[in-house]
Specification:
heterodimer, A: six-stranded mixed β-sheet, 9 strands, globular, B: about 290 residues, MetI-like fold, 13 helices, disordered N terminus
Chain lengths: ~250, ~290
């Protein structure tokens, strides 16, 4: 893979060339209002299999609302949503049921005879094979998030939604989680929507970054850079400045 | 009579256990370690016992007002040897357990109906919230008219007294189950029944146990009173009978038996709670 792929920093909203993969989720003309106050306006979005989309936005920009609509936790929107009935969701808090042991949390709602084996595999993959029988409250924040990730992926999802899943973790744990998420997504190839307000995280992980500003997409940018060593490319810095200014922050590093 | 109504503050926060004294979590690890032996807890009661012995043996208080520890011990020995104490204890115990059983089932059942169904909430909750304001013992005259003075009335009163703390605490706990867990359950594709089984009921279990602890103390309270008003058997009857012949030693024996029963039932509930809520205690006491 070429190391220096030029990043066309255009502003047109539909700039992203569609990958050669089927669409796993699609929003068309989706709007959402709470008590007459608009939060999302006429959103169009397609997520393809294996595509990692990061959704950036300031607090109150409507990004969590968008995720809840895709997660089918919010049905009071207008427009159409096409996609899996049960996308997997990783929340900001790990949301493990405290009264079920770790393994029982992973298998919760799973059907089929091989579900237990599969759950065990995933636990091993996130490095928690020894914690099958542990109560969730004995886990550290990073361990709990890893268990939550295993739970999300154990469903073999076509669409994985992540709502700031690393927000509450310390910096070192977050770096390890980034690597883990990237590895797991490369392996299981779900379509991913990661909601975050961390610009670096978005650029590091995603194939495509979308900025949501006051309920509308103000930027939709593909990132055709290799994942390893991305942080050190000049395009990273360039895109970072661009996204920060889109979010209304002046980047002093530039 | 405040004890028959569950404290709403406790009901709202089932996590805050009804531990008397200082919350264990506030203690330093060293103090916690010392407390584990429980010996420190005995100092207070021991001092009371010494003071009791001192005033009665010293002749400060006449033994017809307050008998000395040894007199009470002798009375207990007499009652035990004659088999009277065991006989009445067994009767009281069975009344309390039957009443408790009925009340726990009724209170929990009503809480489930009110907590899980909208129609149940409308039908049950307003009535229960109104009825809880009524002191249970005010019902004694009416209960006697309805049920006579046999076993039914005592069991009825105990069951009724137990129903309210069970209902209030369990219902509040069901209502307070974290909506985030329900969201999670939906994203996992759980059916309504599965949500209730895996999220709502386990989440409400701490509240159920808070109610059970209240219930265990309420059941003795109601039983004491109903056994003293109209009975021909039971510990309360034994005490009322003793009052007639001014046998204060027997009255004190009855008091101690009630105290021990209360202590025993509380310990039992705590034990069950510790077993059922192991997921929580590993966090609290680690």
């Amino acid at each position: 893979m070429a190391l220096h792929v030029s990043v066309p920093l255009t502003t047109d909203r539909a700039a992203a060339p569609a990958p050669e993969q089927p669409v796993v989720a699609e929003l068309a003309g989706v709007s959402r209002a709470f008590d007459g106050r608009g939060v999302l306006f006429d959103i169009d979005l397609q997520i393809h299999r294996g595509e990692f989309v990061a959704l950036l936005g300031r607090s109150g920009s409507g990004k969590s609302t968008l995720l809840r609509i895709l997660a089918r936790l919010d049905a009071d929107f207008t427009g159409t949503l096409t996609g899996p009935q049960l996308p997997s969701v990783a929340f900001q808090d790990s949301r493990l049921l405290p009264w079920r042991r770790v393994l029982a949390n992973i298998t919760l709602g799973l059907r089929g005879t091989d579900s237990l084996t599969h759950a065990r595999e995933l636990l091993a993959e996130v490095g928690l094979a020894d914690h099958e029988r542990a109560w969730p409250k004995t886990l550290s924040g990073g361990e709990a998030q890893r268990a939550a990730l295993a739970r999300a992926l154990a469903r073999k999802p076509e669409l994985l939604l992540m709502d700031e899943p690393f927000g509450a973790l310390d910096a070192l744990t977050r770096i390890r989680m980034h690597q883990l998420v990237r590895r797991l997504c490369d392996r299981y190839r779900p379509g991913v929507l990661l909601v975050t307000h961390d610009v670096d995280e978005a650029i590091l992980l995603a194939d495509r970054v979308i900025v949501l500003t006051e309920g509308r997409f103000s930027l939709d940018q593909r990132i055709d850079l290799p994942h390893s060593g991305r942080r050190h490319l000049p395009e990273f810095v360039q895109l970072r400045g661009r996204l920060l200014s889109e979010l209304g922050v002046v980047d002093d590093d530039q | 009579m405040a004890a028959t109504q569950a404290n709403p503050d406790v009901a709202v926060k089932p996590d805050q256990a009804l531990t008397p004294g200082v919350d264990d979590r506030l203690r330093t690890p060293r103090a916690k370690r010392a407390n584990r032996w429980g010996l420190g807890r005995l100092i207070g009661p021991l001092l009371v016992l010494i003071a009791w012995a001192a005033v009665t043996w010293g002749g400060l208080v006449d033994s017809s007002v307050l008998p000395s520890p040894s007199e009470v011990g002798a009375a207990a020995g007499r009652l035990l040897a004659a088999g009277t104490l065991q006989q009445h204890l067994l009767i009281s115990l069975s009344r309390a357990m039957i009443g408790l059983g009925i009340g726990v089932v009724a209170g929990t059942g009503l809480a489930l109906v009110a907590g899980l169904f909208r129609w149940g909430e409308n039908l049950v909750d307003a009535n229960m919230q109104m009825a809880r304001a009524m002191p249970i013992l005010a019902l004694v005259p009416l209960a006697i008219v309805w049920l006579g003075i046999g076993e039914e009335v005592k069991i009825f009163l105990v069951a009724l007294g137990v129903t309210f703390p069970m209902y209030l605490n369990t219902h509040a706990a069901i209502r307070a189950v974290d909506a985030r867990y329900l969201d999670l359950g939906r994203t996992l594709g759980l059916s309504r029944l599965e949500l209730i089984r895996t999220v709502v009921l386990p989440g409400a279990l701490p509240g159920f146990f808070t109610g059970l602890r209240f219930a265990a103390s309420v059941c003795w309270l109601v039983l004491v009173v109903s056994e003293q008003i109209n009975a021909s058997s039971g510990i309360g009857y034994l005490m009322t009978q003793a009052r007639g012949i001014s046998a204060t030693d027997v009255i004190v024996v009855g008091l101690i038996v009630y105290a021990l029963l209360g202590l025993l039932s509380d310990t039992l509930v705590r034990f069950l709670e510790g077993k059922a809520l192991a997921w929580r205690s590993t966090f609290q006491y680690r």
